[in-house]
């Protein structure tokens, strides 16, 4: 969970104009950045920010826990984002086999892994490239990646925002990470992407994967996030340490996840200045008159459910 949300809750409790304005600014930045990562359109992100914060005012006084605030805000922002523009249609499901690297890709990663850390860091600093890669993901995977790895919600919070089972969140998160790594690799190499990432196989030739390799590949996110049982983790660690290609691929995957986590899209300084003042004044008025609604999170709209 973003530290800004915890700070905003603390500031709102102080109920003075300066603190409330700062809290509203933090909420504006959070909703705007999230909306840009999901929708990719600045105008839509600004409209989402305004609509979500206006609708949240009656509830903010009752929300004393930052986790509850994050679920409320992201649920409302997600619903508003999906309504803002017509989305292209994507396959809902992405097969794990389509995301497994082929021999040529593994060889290329092995070669790239011997570059100096400075060269690798310099090639990975393009935030615009990262944002473009994220926007190429099918919406059901993009939203999970953004909420978990970029907005720092845990699995339970993401599940609550999206109305999914935690296990489904973990499966989609892993595929989303593999998809965004694949897309970043294409962009870094300057390869055109003529098809939806959900329909492109990274292998150079179709072949049957050994069951052990597929099992390890399917559990990489659980391994990286420290969620595996000790015995399984040790077995996986032993396999990885004995396989240079596995080491190179995991390093590439971890680098992609790290670049996603570092991506933040700042709001222009002038954006929302007047709105922030109006929202702060209205919040203080509601507090003074005791007008606060129960903080019931908005449920998924019918239009947004098809993207889950």
Give the secondary structure arrangement, pairings included.
Blueprint: H1 3-14, H2 17-39, H3 42-60, H4 66-84, H5 103-112, H6 117-123, H7 127-135, H8 139-150, H9 155-162, H10 166-188, H11 211-218, H12 220-224, H13 230-241, H14 244-262, H15 273-288, H16 302-305
Report a brief summary of the structure:
This protein has 16 helices and no strands. With 308 residues, the protein is mainly alpha-helical.
Total count of domains: 2
Overall geometry comes to elongated
Beta-strand percentage range: under 5%
What series of H and E elements makes up the topology? HHHHHHHHHHHHHHHH
Major β-sheet, in short? none
Task: Enumerate how many helices there are, as a single number.
Answer: 16
Structural class: mainly alpha
Mean pLDDT score:
81
Radius of gyration: 21 Å
Distance between the termini: 21 Å
Number of strands: 0
Helical amount: 55-70%
Low-confidence stretches: 116-124, 194-208, 301-305
Domain RNA polymerase sigma-70 region: 26-86
Family: Belongs to the sigma-70 factor family. ECF subfamily.
GO molecular function: DNA binding; sigma factor activity
Organism: Acidobacterium capsulatum (strain ATCC 51196 / DSM 11244 / BCRC 80197 / JCM 7670 / NBRC 15755 / NCIMB 13165 / 161)
């Amino acid at each position: 969970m973003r530290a800004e949300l915890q700070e905003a809750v603390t500031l709102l409790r102080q109920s003075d104009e300066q603190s409330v304005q700062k809290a509203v600014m933090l909420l504006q930045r959070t909703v705007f950045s999230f909306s840009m990562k999901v929708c990719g359109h600045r105008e839509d992100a600004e409209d989402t920010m305004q609509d979500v914060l206006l609708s949240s005012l009656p509830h903010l006084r009752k929300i004393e826990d930052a986790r509850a605030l994050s679920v409320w805000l992201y649920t409302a922002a997600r619903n508003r984002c999906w309504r803002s523009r017509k989305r292209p249609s994507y396959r809902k499901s992405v097969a794990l086999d389509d995301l497994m690297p082929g021999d040529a890709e593994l060889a290329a990663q092995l070669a790239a892994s011997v570059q100096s850390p400075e060269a690798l860091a310099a090639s990975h600093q393009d935030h615009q490239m990262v944002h473009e890669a994220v926007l190429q993901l099918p919406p059901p995977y993009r939203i999970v990646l953004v909420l978990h790895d970029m907005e720092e919600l845990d699995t339970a919070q993401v599940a609550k925002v999206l109305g999914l089972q935690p296990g489904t969140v973990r499966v989609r998160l892993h595929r989303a990470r593999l998809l965004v790594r694949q897309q970043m690799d294409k962009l870094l190499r300057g390869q055109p992407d003529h098809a939806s990432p959900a329909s492109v196989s990274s292998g150079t030739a179709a072949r049957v994967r050994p069951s052990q390799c597929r099992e390890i590949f399917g559990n990489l996110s659980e391994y990286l996030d420290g969620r595996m049982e000790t015995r399984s983790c040790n077995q996986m660690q032993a396999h990885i340490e004995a396989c240079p290609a596995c080491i190179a691929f995991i390093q590439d995957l971890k680098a992609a996840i790290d670049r996603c986590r570092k991506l933040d899209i700042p709001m222009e300084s002038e954006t929302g200045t007047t709105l922030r003042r109006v929202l702060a004044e209205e919040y203080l008025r509601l507090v003074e008159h005791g007008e606060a609604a129960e903080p019931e999170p908005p449920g998924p709209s019918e239009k947004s459910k098809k993207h889950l």
